[in-house]
Amino acid sequence: MNTKTFLLLTAVCFFLSAPFAIAQTSLEILQTRVGVVLVKGSSQIGTVKGEGGEIHVSAIEYLDTTTGDRARGIEFFITAKNGSYPQIDYDEIESLLRAIDRLTTLDGSITELGQFEATYRTRGNMTVSLMKLPLEKDFTAAVDANTLRGGIVILNLNELKELGRLVKAAKTKLDSLKATAK
């Protein structure tokens, strides 16, 4: 088999397998259920505009009306490229907040080498990264949906901090739902 054929077959297999990706979050697992009425509730929290697109942050909840199973979390609508909707479960929000806080406090002393990249990855495969490139004076952040539909938005440090504020506001909204459900 020649190289072109191998690459073509690899690409076809990758694209054919994408719709059957394994659900990795509680939100994704609920969305894969068939034969049930599934309700999605959402509340848009805010938007961060960056280079190459925007990131809309929403608090979300899925309810399986047949079993009463419920999952809550945050959905990020990333407008870059074709648009994508990575989601994180409620139990992952604190970890994401700590990661964003840590990323925004990193400086060049983290390594003696001239450049670095620090990355946080969610269970759903979304990444939040901070980079110091050799010819750049400022740090660059990136949020990547890591889906076939694509979606990378480049942020500066202030925009990354704003994303952290929106994630915290979404958590506060979800916490208020838990308080009223008791």
Could you give the topology of this structure?
Layout: H1 3-17, H2 26-31, E1 38-50, E2 53-64, E3 70-78, E4 87-89, H3 93-105, E5 116-121, E6 127-132, E7 140-144, E8 152-155, H4 157-181
Antiparallel strand pairs: 1-2, 2-3, 3-4, 5-6, 6-7, 7-8
Structural class: alpha+beta
Q: Tell me the fraction of residues in β-strands, as a range.
A: 25-35%
The CATH class: Alpha Beta
Tally of helical runs: 4
Low-confidence stretches are 5-20
Description of the molecule:
- With 182 residues, this protein is α+β, with helices and mostly antiparallel strands.
- The protein has a single domain (22-181), classed as Secreted effector protein pipB2 fold, CATH 3.30.2450.
- The chain is 32% helix and 32% strand.
- Strands 1-2-3-4 form a 4-stranded antiparallel β-sheet. A 4-stranded antiparallel β-sheet has the order 5-6-7-8.
- β1 and β2 form a beta hairpin.
- It is elongated and about 55 Å long.
- The chain starts with a helix and ends with a helix.
- Mean pLDDT is 83; it is low at 5-20.
